[in-house]
UniProtKB/TrEMBL annotation:
<dbReference type="InterPro" id="IPR013736">
    <property type="entry name" value="Xaa-Pro_dipept_C"/>
</dbReference>
<dbReference type="GO" id="GO:0008239">
    <property type="term" value="F:dipeptidyl-peptidase activity"/>
</dbReference>
<dbReference type="InterPro" id="IPR008252">
    <property type="entry name" value="Pept_S15_Xpro"/>
</dbReference>
<feature type="domain" description="Xaa-Pro dipeptidyl-peptidase C-terminal">
    <location>
        <begin position="44"/>
        <end position="282"/>
    </location>
</feature>
<protein>
    <submittedName>
        <fullName>Xaa-Pro dipeptidyl-peptidase</fullName>
        <ecNumber>3.4.14.11</ecNumber>
    </submittedName>
</protein>
<dbReference type="GO" id="GO:0006508">
    <property type="term" value="P:proteolysis"/>
</dbReference>
<dbReference type="Pfam" id="PF08530">
    <property type="entry name" value="PepX_C"/>
</dbReference>
<keyword id="KW-0378">Hydrolase</keyword>
<dbReference type="GO" id="GO:0004177">
    <property type="term" value="F:aminopeptidase activity"/>
</dbReference>
<dbReference type="InterPro" id="IPR029058">
    <property type="entry name" value="AB_hydrolase_fold"/>
</dbReference>
<dbReference type="InterPro" id="IPR008979">
    <property type="entry name" value="Galactose-bd-like_sf"/>
</dbReference>
Amino acid sequence: VKPINVYQMFRALPKSLEKHLFFHNGAHVYMNAWQSIDFRESMNALICQKLLDLDNGYTLPTVIWQNNQSEQTWEVLDNFGHDNGKHIQLGKAEASIANHYEEEIFAKYGKAYQSFKDDLFMDKANAITLDFELDQDIQINGRVHLELRVKSSTNRGLISAQVLEMGDKKYLAPIPELKRMNVDNGRLFKEEALRELPFKQAKYRVITKGHLNLQNRKDLLSIENVTPNEWMTIGLDLQPTIYKLNKGDKLRLVLYTTDFEHTIRDNSDYEVTVDLSQSKMTLPY
């Protein structure tokens, strides 16, 4: 399950229907296993209210999200996905992404994809790396959208994107740690470990990412030709997220063909060129 699956279901439900969503950062954790939010007691209060007609004064907000800027902090929102958008022009020139790596590097990345990610995020892999400093506070809520003017040197092409917050400071780490060895009545009524994301010093934090096959640039069921060296305008929506940023925070957009973690990729020799002057990124808030 990816964020997009929950996002689409939540937004597809009619407005007349009362709906609720919990949004957390990092790897998958069952909601009842978080130390910092008492999910089980929230559900007990809601069920008693609905099934037993108990007037306990409990109100479940529409969206409860885990604040990325502090440790063990949950806050309330009225929706998942907003229509307002901050537009950021990507640049003034053309830039190219090479798909091909030298065999030694390709083999290294294939055996240890984390080494590829480390190089990619630090501008050491085949990628277009663009840095921006925010001129206002913004809370991303929804799908970051990229409008890209691109061309491929061959009759096919892949393009991927990741957005990161850069800067040496504390972030919520992506992998949860055990905070207590067990709690009664976990999943399937078994004892279950409590977990929490550590708030650690790091150089960056991934906010969202996405991927597109240029032959499926309209949708996954439509196959369109890619004419070598012919410009096309594509739209790429990244995975939906909720992420809070402050004025002066630094964003990094990384554009590359494809990765070594999720994709069975070849090492063919082609390039994807992006006209940055005709491309932009939109942050929903």
